[in-house]
């Protein structure tokens, strides 16, 4: 039984066996993936996936703390990383530190993740110098959809140089790994070969040092939309709806509950028992 890796252990996986990760938002989901993942991310995707928000912009510190605590209770082997929500870190390194410390203190997360490249480098260095391991996130950064102009592929053409500069800046600033979201595969490979920290791909390349997906997407539970980069490894949404429709039919037919689901007046072999 191995204990959870630390950010330095994840960093040391650069160029080695692929790093496996998923998002989680609840204790049972965390338990399901604990033995299979190197790290688990409490993503701010929780806002869209579990709370029905139209984007991640409405996610609060309170939501991240509650879901982070739930996920922490389900993990024993995988490292816990938690997203900093929109508005909790962009204003200043000091603001970022205060909120990162709150997230780590309340959830026990080993590291935080924040979105942004060169413009977040000073903040990343400030956090790392003060004991907060940082996973960066570049390429498509969903908290910036309103300035990026939607969920487009990032880093094509002229954007390639910027992505590489972003990757170098956050690596130099001391981030222990970086998520590359929705960038051309060849660019993801170039970044992976260029920087000394692991790249975690989502809509990037099999050549990245690791992969991540939103767990509800890959289980087929979140079906509102399916990005091209999502592969459904299950169809839990369909299975769940079938189960619910069977339940509804049995209730309407009075075939559920059946005798084995109901209680007698007396416990068998006792008098006045709880039954
Ligand atoms: O919030 C999230 O789920 C994420 C991952 C998809 C990288 O940031
Ligand atoms: Na996120």
TrEMBL record:
Q: Which GO terms describe its cellular component?
A: cytoplasm
Picking any one GO molecular function of the record gives: magnesium ion binding
Q: Where is this region: Disordered?
A: 258-275
Say yes or no: keyword Mitochondrion present. no
Q: Which CDD domains match?
A: KPHMT-like
Please provide an example of a Pfam family that matches this protein in its UniProt record. Answer: Pantoate_transf
Provide the binding site for Mg(2+). Answer: 44, 83, 115
The entry's localization annotation reads: Cytoplasm
Its required cofactor(s), as named, are:
Mg(2+)
Q: Which UniProt keywords apply?
A: Cytoplasm, Magnesium, Metal-binding, Methyltransferase, Pantothenate biosynthesis, Transferase
**Which InterPro entries has this protein been placed in?**
Pantoate_hydroxy_MeTrfase (IPR003700), Pyrv/PenolPyrv_kinase-like_dom (IPR015813), Pyrv_kinase-like_dom_sf (IPR040442)
- Binding of 3-methyl-2-oxobutanoate occurs at 44-45, 83, 113
Q: In which pathway does it act?
A: Cofactor biosynthesis; (R)-pantothenate biosynthesis; (R)-pantoate from 3-methyl-2-oxobutanoate: step 1/2
Q: Which residues form the active site?
A: 181
Q: Which reaction does it catalyse?
A: (6R)-5,10-methylene-5,6,7,8-tetrahydrofolate + 3-methyl-2-oxobutanoate + H2O = 2-dehydropantoate + (6S)-5,6,7,8-tetrahydrofolate
Cofactor binding note of this UniProt entry: Binds 1 Mg(2+) ion per subunit.
Q: How does it assemble?
A: Homodecamer; pentamer of dimers.
**HAMAP family, alphabetized:** PanB
Function comment: Catalyzes the reversible reaction in which hydroxymethyl group from 5,10-methylenetetrahydrofolate is transferred onto alpha-ketoisovalerate to form ketopantoate.
Q: What is this protein called?
A: 3-methyl-2-oxobutanoate hydroxymethyltransferase
């Amino acid at each position: 039984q191995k204990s959870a890796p630390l950010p330095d252990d994840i960093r040391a996986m650069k160029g080695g066996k692929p790093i496996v990760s998923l998002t989680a938002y609840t204790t049972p989901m965390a338990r399901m993936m604990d033995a299979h993942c190197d790290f688990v991310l409490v993503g701010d995707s929780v806002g869209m996936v579990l709370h029905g928000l139209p984007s991640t912009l409405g996610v609060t510190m309170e939501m991240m703390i509650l879901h982070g605590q739930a996920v922490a209770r389900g993990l024993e082997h995988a490292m816990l990383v938690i997203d900093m929500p929109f508005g909790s870190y962009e204003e200043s390194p000091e603001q970022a530190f205060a909120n990162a410390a709150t997230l780590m203190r309340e959830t026990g997360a080993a590291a935080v993740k924040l979105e942004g490249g060169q413009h977040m480098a000073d903040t990343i260095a400030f956090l790392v110098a003060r004991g907060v391991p940082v996973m960066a996130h570049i390429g498509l950064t969903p908290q910036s959809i309103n300035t990026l102009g939607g969920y487009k592929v990032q880093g094509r053409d002229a954007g390639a140089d910027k992505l590489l500069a972003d990757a170098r800046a956050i690596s130099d600033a001391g981030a222990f790994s970086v998520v590359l979201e929705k960038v051309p595969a060849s660019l993801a490979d170039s970044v992976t070969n260029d920087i000394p920290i692991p790249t975690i791909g989502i809509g990037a390349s099999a050549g990245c040092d690791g992969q991540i997906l939103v767990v509800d997407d890959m289980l087929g539970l979140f079906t509102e939309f399916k990005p091209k980069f999502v592969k459904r490894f299950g169809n839990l949404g369909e299975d769940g709806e079938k189960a619910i429709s069977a339940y509804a039919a049995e209730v309407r037919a009075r075939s559920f509950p059946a005798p084995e689901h109901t209680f007698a007046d007396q416990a068998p072999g006792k008098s006045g028992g709880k039954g």
